[in-house]
Amino acid sequence: MNWGFLENVLSGVNKYSTVIGRIWLSILFIFRILVYVAAAEQVWKDEQKDFTCNTRQPGCENVCYDHLFPISQTRLWALQLIMVSTPSLLVALHVAYREHKESKCGHTLYEDRGRIDGGLLGTYIASIILKTFFEVASLLAFYFLYSGFEVPLLYRCEESPCPNIVDCYIARATEKKIFLYIMGCTSVLCIVLNVVELFYIIWKQCSKYFNKRYVSVEERQRRRHRFMVSNYNLPVSIVNKPASPQAPPGLNKGLRRSEPSCTQSLPYLMRH
Amino acid sequence: MGDWSSLSELLDKVQAHSTVVGKIWMSVLLVFRILVLGVAADEVWGDEQSHFFCNNEEPGCTLACYNWMFPVSYIRYWVLQILLVSTPTLVYLGHAVHVIHRERRLRERLQGHDKGAADALRKPKYTDDRGKIVIKGILLRSYLAQLVVKILLEVGFVVGQFYLYDSPFMVPYFHCREDPCPPRIGVECFISRPTEKSIFVVFMLVVAGVSVFLNLLEILYLLCARKRQGQKKKRAALTNQEHYLSGKDLKLSGAPTAPWTCTRLTPPLGAPTAPWTSTRLTPPQGPPRPHGPPPGSPPHRGPNGPMDLHHAHSPLGAPMAPWTSTRLTPPLGAMDLHQEE
Predict the structure, then answer these.
(1) How confident is the model at residue A237 (pLDDT cuts 50, 70, 90)?
(2) DSSP per-residue string spanning B71-135
């Protein structure tokens, strides 16, 4: 399976992530995908060929293997990696949507398209929650399908058409156990990182919202002037209008409530 | 073999923020470990289970004996070793990138502000104007920490390998009594390509040893470089102190100074010798020294610039103490003047 495609797509998400998001992405690439491709796939390569039962009854080995491994551990692991990577693409999609909106409008709507605020904040939080959900679901699937993370060397099987209780042996049992533990530990680490990132984003937004720093009127005018001149090339007389009477002088709003649209008036943009 | 490109790309990024020895270490890792693992060792261990035989037909006996002899295959063990040994380097890369990013923002802010505000802000400490990182302060500590962790991990993995497999030399066959093999008599099990595998095991052990040696060398190199820098700073601080103090001292007394040195040109009145040194204040009798321009010529700059005390000469032609580089007036409070001959 070619993981390069997934890696290429996910690399683009790096720009729109927080620091913790980038650490999560590096752990995903190096400690999960690389370990899976370089090691785990080889360990489970001949798992059915090397699955032996001490019986000559035709079909008994197949049935016992199918009963023990309804889905191969390595395939479940690959599914987990894919499901866990996909929510990050939502963020990339949202940024692409913002770019599309800007190109349709013809003028700049956002100071920074990749900044996590407004609708992108909701998408980012949703992606973190989905990632955590998929991680937990995969760990639970592993736990209940295979009765824990143990891989026994010997499995006693009494499925039909086996004539009695037969002993079946699993190849490289210890090595598989070690890699399942590595998979479990990296999953737990990623869950912890997701939770920390969630708290970090929420804390950052709350501190921006509740931090009512009073900026001087001159500084606000200077910022407005810089933004308008750089984005709209408006003459200085239009830019240097007095602040609207509704907004208290110098109050920094901080949190953008909704995505701006093409038809919104200029004073909305000037306030942000 | 797996795709190591993502790890290789990250390690390439660290190269720019490492010392020379660090770059050598990374090349050793990439060429002698990852490449050898991918190209050669994978072929050698490819048939490790398919060509593993025990002289017993009991189903499961071969699997049990293989599992007992090789709890983890060598190849997988080396993959984990390479990953874990690269991790401290990647953590340092994260720290360096964070520092570079922070200093770039600081530089942008400094450019944007006017002079007065710029002085109040912190100056970029770890990067120069080209954006290249300088390993000092907290970055140096983080770099040294990652080197120490790498050494510990390498040693840990080598010890772990001896614990798992006893000897790096593979035996062609071994005796096995694992269940379901007959416990009393046991079975003989045969490993495929034991000699070739032994060669690779020994090769990887030697590379691990070289890696530990390079890390130790890098630690020594950094500590020596830091010590040298510290001594240079101390010397520079002393010289600056002399300049500052001599400037004050001579300004007060009104005596003419050679501006390119910190030496006054005429001896203090009534002082036959400078008691804090053994330098006489009047030159010894004898032929004049050949070096130095004739009196009245413009001030001569020594080959090392204006601070070169050996070649300084006053425009008035009055000699200072050309047979030494000792100043003729003492620095205030200086007990032990360092003579640079």
Answers:
(1) low
(2) SS-HHHHHHHHHHHHHHHHHHHHHHHHHHHHHHHHHHHHHHHS-HHHHHHSPPP-SB-TTS-B--
Confidence (pLDDT) at B120: 56
Find chain A residues with C-beta within 8 A of B75's C-beta: 39, 42
- Write the burial class of residue B184 (CB in 10 Å: 0-12 exposed, 13-18 middle, 19+ buried): exposed
The confidence band for A262, taking pLDDT boundaries of 50, 70 and 90, is low
pTM for the full predicted model: 0.69
What does the alpha-carbon distance between residue A45 and residue A162 come to, in Å, rounded to a whole number?
25
Strands, E, within B229-337: which ranges? none
Distance from CA of B78 to the nearest CA of A (A): 10
Cβ atoms A139, A184 nearer than 8 A = yes
| Among A34, A55, A153, beta carbon nearest to B67 | A153
Burial letters for B90-124: b for 16+ Cβ neighbours within 10 Å, e otherwise? bbbbbbbbebbeebeebeeeeeeeeeeeeeeeeeb
Residue A247 confidence class, pLDDT cut points 50, 70, 90: very low
Q: Is the ipTM of this complex over 0.85?
A: no
- Which of B3, B71, B87 is nearest residue A174 as measured by Cβ atoms? B71
User: For the ranges A2-11, A161-170, B118-127, which has the lowest average pLDDT?
Assistant: B118-127
Average pLDDT rounded to a whole number, residues A12-41:
86
